[in-house]
UniProtKB/TrEMBL annotation:
This is Envelope fusion protein. Pfam families: Baculo_F. InterPro entries: Envelope_fusion-like (IPR022048). Keywords: Membrane, Transmembrane, Transmembrane helix.
Length: 453
């Protein structure tokens, strides 16, 4: 406005046309300014609108971001519950089949338990070493049970602790050993009281087990874990036959065993998993053909022993074929003969005579191939037969003696009667008519009585 007043003052001196031109110019300039202001207002309104829109989007996206974050947290919690529930169901499913789930006990918790056992267990140890301790490795050895109490699910895991010194388990095979006693074929074997014997060399004790006991044992790839349910017997010179023959084989110990006799005439073959071989007992000598990739060879087998040969080889005799499946090291063949002779005639020189006598006295029903007669029964039957034979001889002797005595008495009686008859004929006694004479009767009776005596 100040510029306008100044311009009006100046225009008074100028010409009108100049003023008119100037006014037009000012008018144009004002109009231009108005247009520019309008354009600026339009742009400002546009900018304000954009600014408002931008602010709304920010808050909206910020809200959505917060909502998504909350939903993600809820989803994470739900996933955690879902995983926990699934793991719990898996743990329960594992426990129902007596198996341990890896999530049941963490390795850190298990390591803590093992360290406590190592610190306090003097003669006991954990079944697996601490450096490889994972709970799933104990599935074959542990027992697990489930319980529910006061809204708590309880898992009870029973892990056996093992003795530090290993106990060796032996299976005893009563192998029949062929015997040839004066032309009569029999087979003898030692009858063990139990099928298995467990020996702890460190503790110097042993015990006996049967098949039922082994059913209660746990096992992994390396060993069996068995509870102690039988008495432990100390090793001594008065130990059982099975232990003495294993550790101190001798003829004296063999004589204390329960030896049985059978009529088993068939060859016996028993596969031994521990040595991957065959335990055999043969009635007669056999030529065994062993065929391998590099050739074949003949081996003469006799008596009893253990046969081993390389894998993928085949042994054959008669109509029997034996194939070796697994390797046994570098050995081609290995034969084992018992360290103690099982020739029962060594135990008793009269044993062949006793066996022959007893077998001949037995009926056909006792001569079955599966019938077993122990040595005590042989001795009892032999004593009984000997006693019956002695009694029979005594009875015959008594009978013959009685008959001979009676015959002698009859001869003497005949002689006496003949003498009396001759005396009566020579002296011709006059016998009174009375038959009840005491003198005559007494004399005659006395003579007969004396002869009879």
């Amino acid at each position: 406005m100040e510029r306008y007043r100044l311009f009006m003052a100046m225009s008074q001196k100028d010409d009108s046309h100049l003023i008119h031109n100037k006014l037009n110019d000012i008018t144009k300039r004002i109009q231009k300014e108005k247009n520019d202001i309008k354009k600026a207002m339009i742009e400002l309104n546009k900018t304000a609108y954009h600014l408002y829109s931008l602010s709304s989007d920010y808050y909206r996206w910020s809200y959505l971001s917060d909502v998504n974050l909350a939903l993600n947290e809820v989803e994470s919690v739900l996933n955690l519950f879902d995983d926990t529930l699934r793991n719990l169901l898996d743990i329960i499913s594992y426990a129902k089949v007596n198996s341990l789930h890896p999530e049941l006990i963490t390795p850190e918790q298990l390591h803590k338990v093992i360290r406590q056992i190592e610190d306090h267990g003097k003669d006991l140890e954990f079944p697996i070493p601490i450096d490889s301790a994972r709970i799933e490795k104990l599935s074959n050895l542990a027992d697990i049970s489930l319980g529910y109490h006061d809204d708590n699910l309880i898992f009870h895991v029973n892990i056996p602790l093992l003795e530090k010194h290993i106990t060796n388990l032996y299976k005893m095979h009563p192998l029949p050993i062929p015997q040839n006693l004066q032309g009569i074929y029999i087979a003898t074997s030692i009858r063990p009281r139990w099928k298995y014997i467990a020996i702890n060399e460190h503790s110097k004790v042993y015990s006996f087990l049967n098949e039922d006991d082994l059913q209660n044992c746990k096992h992994d790839k390396r060993r069996k874990v068995c509870p102690k349910k039988h008495m432990m017997i100390e090793m001594s010179s008065k130990a059982d036959c099975e232990y003495l023959l294993l550790h101190k084989p001798s003829l004296v110990n063999f004589s204390e065993c329960d030896v049985v006799i059978t009529h088993e005439k068939r060859d016996t073959w028993i596969h031994l998993d521990s040595v991957n071989g065959w335990l055999y007992s043969l009635k007669e000598n056999h030529s065994l053909l062993i065929t391998c990739e590099k050739g074949m060879t003949y081996v003469i087998l006799k008596g009893a022993g253990i046969l081993q040969f390389k894998p993928k080889c085949q042994a054959k005799y008669r109509d029997i074929s034996i194939t070796q499946q697994e390797g046994i090291g570098e050995s081609v063949q290995y034969f084992y003969m018992p360290h103690v002779s099982l020739n029962i005639s060594i135990l008793d020189p009269k044993l062949p005579e006793k066996v022959n006598l007893v077998l001949q006295s037995m009926t056909e029903e006792y001569l079955d191939d599966s019938t077993e007669i122990d040595m005590k029964e042989i001795q009892r039957r032999y004593d009984q037969l000997t006693e019956e034979t002695s009694t029979d001889k005594l009875h015959k002797y008594t009978t013959y003696g009685s008959l001979l005595t009676l015959l002698i008495l009859m001869i003497f009686a005949g002689i006496a009667i003949f003498i009396i008859y001759k005396l009566n004929e020579q002296y011709r006694f006059e016998i009174p008519q009375k038959t009840n004479s005491p003198i005559q009767v007494n004399v005659s009776t006395q003579s007969l009585n004396e002869m009879e005596q």
